[in-house]
Design brief:
50% of the residues lie in helices and 10% in strands. With 403 residues, it is α+β, with helices and mostly antiparallel strands. The chain has one domain (10-401): Cytochrome P450 (Cytochrome p450, Orthogonal Bundle). It has a 6-stranded mixed sheet with strand order 1-2-3-9-6-4. A 3-stranded antiparallel sheet has the order 5-11-10. 46% of the residues are buried. Residues 91-92, 103, 155, 237-238, 241-242, 245-246, 249, 287-288, 291, 315, 317, 344-346, 350, 352-354, 357-358 line the site of protoporphyrin IX containing FE. Protoporphyrin IX containing FE binds at residues 91-92, 103, 155, 237-238, 241-242, 245-246, 249, 287-288, 291, 315, 317, 344-346, 350, 352-354, 357-358.
């Protein structure tokens, strides 16, 4: 760590019981608090809503890893499980004009009009998956059979990833977003993903299709605006961001609704909208727990501490969503609160590019699921186990029973 007078960091435990319990402790310690990540890497977690909102839009905070002293000096451990978030070439690790160039290339695929055009296909996919779910007997894992395949199929088709490669990609990407992988597994997953997506790029170059990968290649070859590494990095980002998060959102929303049957009933009778369910779930149980990393380009004063130039920050979205200084009674899932202006889809220049798609997918999934199975309930048994990650915030399985 670069601050000589900094307090002792809190160890962030990816195998910890529950992110919300851990986050309550971090929030109590202040708006920005030092945490130790796996491998002994120390960064600031920004956990208060207002502070996080300000820093996400602060020009003194960047995403280019060259700003980070620990990275520049080669002090990260070999096979560090979060390395991919720091080094993947693409819009999440770029600032300013570079960021605008990389983001601009995919923005046109995510305009409100293009998203609205996808609605009938998303609805048909969700209905087909529910036809399969209806055939399952006894308790079943809602995450595996519904929350996962829907966003995976949608983003897979947008990018032209063949269905038979989607499960392989998901397994590799699970390792990448888990902050608990062993060094060997983290490196193998990264290599596996680069090989798989390099193959996708080669196939689309040989035989272009009606998909975003072919569009990105055409843009790259038209005026050489995207390097080969940036192309593969962008595919990686879109495929991971495009399904791991929405999968968590659908899972977390179903879990919250089944734990609050009176609020589910009020949605089903039209008192509350599916949109309200999605927004309140994003606030209450953010699918992205903590997003790595940002870096201070200058010294920044935050609530009595100084984040020094060259130090790194985690955007603690799940903690900010439960900040009672911003959301009254923040630990309560309450569809009646005014639409939550949460930060769980990001804020500022890196605001989630797929926000419209994620909202459409989640609203469609929940509406169809509960219309088809209004008596759905949680299966008996122990509480579901959290994912061993502080990046991905959800449960490993969600066992439910058709009513
Ligand atoms: C519920 C679902 C989703 C959630 C909660 C979510 C959340 C986020 C968050 C918090 C960020 C900002 C990360 C940061 O810099 O701190 C982000 C960025 C991003 N998201 Fe999403 N996301 C979701 C769905 C999607 C989907 C469906 C896609 C699309 C294809 C997508 C693509 C992206 C991309 C490309 C960025 C990077 C933008 C940039 O750096 O300029 N996301 N997302």
């Amino acid at each position: 760590m670069d601050s000589a007078l900094a307090p002792q960091p809190v160890r962030l435990d990816p195998f910890g019981a529950d992110q919300h319990t851990e986050n309550a402790g971090l929030r109590a310690a202040g708006p920005a608090v030092l945490v130790e990540l796996p491998g002994g890497v120390v960064v600031w977690a920004v956990t208060h809503h207002d502070t996080l909102q300000a820093l996400l839009n602060d020009p003194r905070v960047g995403k280019n890893p060259q700003l980070w002293t620990t990275f520049r000096e080669g002090r990260l451990p070999e096979g560090w499980p979060l390395m991919n978030f720091v080094t993947v070439p693409g819009m999440v690790t770029a600032d300013g004009a570079d960021h605008r160039r990389l983001r601009g290339l995919v923005t046109q695929a995510f305009t409100p009009r293009r998203i609205a055009e996808l609605a009938p296909a998303i609805e048909a996919r969700a209905a087909a998956l529910l036809d399969e779910v209806a055939l399952l007997e006894g308790d079943f894992d809602l995450r595996r059979h519904f929350a996962y395949p829907l966003p995976m199929q949608v983003i897979g088709e947008l990018l032209g990833l063949p269905p038979k490669q989607q499960d392989e990609l998901h397994e590799l990407s699970d390792t990448l977003v888990s902050s608990s992988a062993t060094p060997g597994a983290a490196v193998a997953a990264q290599q596996g993903l680069f090989a798989l997506l390099g193959g996708l790029a080669a196939a689309k170059r040989a035989e272009p299709g009606d998909d975003l990968t072919s569009d990105l290649i055409a843009a790259r070859e038209a005026d050489d605006r995207l390097t080969e590494m940036e192309l593969v990095g962008t595919l990686l980002l879109m495929l991971i961001a495009g399904h791991e998060t929405t999968l968590n959102l659908i899972t977390n929303a179903v879990r919250a609704l089944l734990a609050h049957p009176e609020q589910l009933a009020a949605v089903l009778d039209g008192t509350y909208t599916w949109s309200a369910v999605v927004e309140e779930t994003l606030r209450y149980d953010s699918p992205v727990g903590q997003f790595p990393l940002r870096y201070a380009a200058e010294d920044i004063e935050v609530g009595g501490v100084t984040i020094r130039r060259g130090e790194a920050l985690l955007a603690s979205y799940a903690a900010a969503g439960r900040d009672s200084g911003h959301f009254p009674d923040a630990d309560r899932f309450d569809l009646g609160r005014a639409p939550a202006k949460h930060l769980s889809l990001g804020h500022g220049p890196h605001f989630c590019l797929g926000a419209g798609l994620a909202r459409l997918e989640a609203e469609t999934a929940l509406r169809l699921l509960f219309t088809r199975f209004p008596g759905l309930r949680l299966a008996d048994g122990p509480a579901p186990e959290p994912i061993a990650s502080f990046v991905s915030n959800s449960v490993k399985t969600l066992l439910v029973r058709q009513g």
